[in-house]
Amino acid sequence: MNTRKFALAIAFSALVLTSGAFAGTKVALMPLGPTVSISGNQHPSTMQLEAFCNATPCNINWQQMQNDSNVGTLDKCSTCADTTTGPVSHFTAGTATGWVVVVIDDGQNHVATTVINVVP
Fold first, then answer.
1. Integer distance in angstroms from the first to the last C-alpha of the chain?
2. What share of the chain is helix, strand, coil (3-state, %, to 5)?
3. Averaged pLDDT score across all residues of the chain
4. What secondary structure letter does DSSP report for 83?
5. Rounded to an integer, what distance in angstroms lies between the CA atom of residue 52 and that of residue 110?
6. pLDDT (tens digit, 9 = 90+) per residue, 40-72?
7. Is the N end or the C end of the chain the one with fewer CB atoms within 10 Å?
8. What is the pLDDT of residues 11-30, one digit of tens each?
9. When comparing pLDDT for 1 and 75, which is higher?
10. What 3-state DSSP class applies to 17?
11. Which ranges constitute the DSSP H helices of the chain?
């Protein structure tokens, strides 16, 4: 019986820490570390990225940094939104393999990043 109380306490503490961590960052970007494929065989060639923030409206600025200009493109849509989650953007693989770092910010010094891997 003591074991169950201990496990419940750990689960509750983890939930509180996770909630507190998001509240401190103000913005989040999902998915984390996605992989896209030039060919679209093993991975999709297009990836939807979703931004979340604690403010309403959720005004997000999108930026990308990549190791090769042919790795792909990000539509950087500031007005696109999924009505249930907030701003969305789409990354489409190009003709070269590599990586892209996508950075979002809300204009109030709150940032989040994800790295997209582009494979053959």
1. 53
2. 20, 40, 40
3. 78
4. T
5. 11
6. 888 999 999 998 888 777 778 888 999 999 999
7. N
8. 333 333 344 444 555 899 99
9. 75
10. helix
11. 2-25
Structural contact between residues 22 and 28, judged by C-beta atoms closer than 8 angstroms = yes
For residue range 87-103, what is the model confidence (pLDDT) as tens digits? 888 899 999 999 999 99
Distance, in Å, from the CA atom of 41 to the CA atom of 118, rounded to the nearest integer, reads 12
* Beta strands in 24-97, from DSSP E residues, in sequence order: 27-30, 35-37, 46-53, 61-66, 72-74, 81-82, 86-93
Tokens of 7: 């496990």
**Residue located via tokens 């249930």:** 84
Backbone torsion region of residue 83, taken as left when φ is above 0, otherwise alpha when ψ lies between -120 and 50, otherwise beta: alpha
The amino acid present at 17, given as its one-letter code, is L
